């Protein structure tokens, strides 16, 4: 009875609202899930947890989709949700995934050639960066954000962000250029 | 741009399009080399960061959202049903409250007399047949009637005693007018045998199926009308 009353008047507009929202969500997922998942992975260091957090992030995004006014800001918005979601994970579970010192990377492909070896090694290096250096770098390289945008997202000032980016690249570059260290950490 | 600032800038964002920065690159070969190295590092890093994304992730994300939407809709429907149910419950309760709360007839009768002053001022000279006709229209009083004229009747109309349809008569007493209410008996009715306020006295009694309430200025009038009714009303 109530259904028929409810449907009579408002169904067409509600339905089209729902459809618009659904389409918006679908395109958000298609366009950004790769970046969001990669960001989550590099932030967290575990594929399964990264997938869970990505799921939670998008579910929250769906529920709050009406609050996203500007689609251009969608990526930053999702990353904000993701960072909050990740922080919540630590509140929920008391045990510590403490960054990425544990085996960050599943050794899926046994390194067959030098390029793969180098990439494997480089991934390990990225994973070993302190999270405060790693995160701005991820935002710049995965997210494509500018210094100001990163500063906004991380609630830091721009100079701090630039300093952290400097240190991050500096460490990685040094590591790449000193083969002994590479040998050690690889061994 | 001094060297330190340049290096900071280059390491911070080797792809910067800042004019001063670009000028420095074109001016100094070694600076250009550094920036190229950093760009090469960035492309290696970007490759390294581009880990494989599970193939079905996008589908999973949409599926999960669809499930949650479905559940929300179900919740919404449940919510509506719950609202409807509680509204119905409230209506049901208040109707039964209205029907089953005790009705103090005495108080109500006095209030009614005050409320309808015109009843005391008209003279319709109603015959007892008319009164019987009206009585027959009241649920519970279909069989009640006057067998003969109970003195003069000035006025008659239906009235409402807290949801109970009853009959309002104005009759002639010895000296003044007396208001008579005839109310079908219900369990929740309570009344006193006699009651009064500053202006009126009242008398209540019960016959077979009805409550009779008399309201008048003089006790004598009330007794007089009561006698008449007892003789004529069955």
UniProtKB/TrEMBL annotation, chain A:
Domain called RNA polymerase sigma-70 region: residue spans: 28-94
Domain RNA polymerase sigma factor 70 region 4 type: 121-172
Keywords: DNA-binding, Sigma factor, Transcription, Transcription regulation
Superkingdom of origin organism: Bacteria
Family statement drawn from the similarity comment of this UniProt entry: Belongs to the sigma-70 factor family. ECF subfamily.
Entries under NCBIfam families matching the protein: PRK12517.1, sigma70-ECF
Protein name from the UniProt record: RNA polymerase sigma factor
Organism (species): Shewanella electrodiphila
UniProtKB/TrEMBL annotation, chain B:
Transmembrane stretches, start-end: 79-98
InterPro entries: DUF3379
Name of protein: DUF3379 domain-containing protein
Keywords per UniProt: Membrane, Transmembrane, Transmembrane helix
Keyword Membrane: yes
Domain of life: Bacteria
Keyword Membrane appears in the UniProt entry: yes
